Fold this sequence. Notes:
Number of domains: 1
Structural class: alpha/beta
Strand content: 15-25%
CATH superfamily: Vaccinia Virus protein VP39
Number of strands: 7
CATH topology: Rossmann fold
CATH architecture: 3-Layer(aba) Sandwich
Mean pLDDT: 96
Shape: globular
Number of helices: 8
Amino acid sequence: MERTLFEKVDHYIAGLTAKENPALLHATATIDGANLFNQSISAVQGKMLQVFLKACNAQRVLELGTFRAYSTIWLAQGLPKNGKLVTIEFDQTHAEVARQNIEHAHLETIVELKVGNALEILATMIQDNEPPFDLFFIDADKPPYLEYFQMALKMSRKGSIIICDNVIRNGKVLDEDSTDEKVRGVQRLNDFLKNCDQVTATILQTVGTKEYDGMLIAVVN
């Protein structure tokens, strides 16, 4: 099948269930206007995150990899007014634009943006006995994906949902001899799942406007 067919179907689904509101369109414009490769999720994937939020009655969400807050806005708009979303971004420039996009969406009372090294920030949050989160969305740098997942487990409760994006890498995860650090990072996480009895998990292949990849979806036992 041609890639254009997958894209057309993605747009069809988005038109039915995942129409972008002005805040989301504005966030996308800040990416396109800067001539950046759009690392954000698709609209359909954003709506899927909201479905998972509802499924676990999420009040508290932790996101790793804010970029310019497109996925952040999808997540925050799916939370109740008294909900809380903590999102972590390493890049200062992306973080500043993300903050502006969050304010433009009037979500600054729900979203707390932390800037810096995610592993260090998470370690501090764990040390400070941060209350457990109901849903995690991991879409940050790939080499430490396993460490991100393990730290998410420490910050979860029974029934928490952990979602990790980009774990198939256009099928490159099948290459056991890959030297790509991004591929190696997600391979380490995927292999960890084989013997992890802390979660019930699967990996869904994804196609559409974001090409060919996959999402790891785990529920904490």
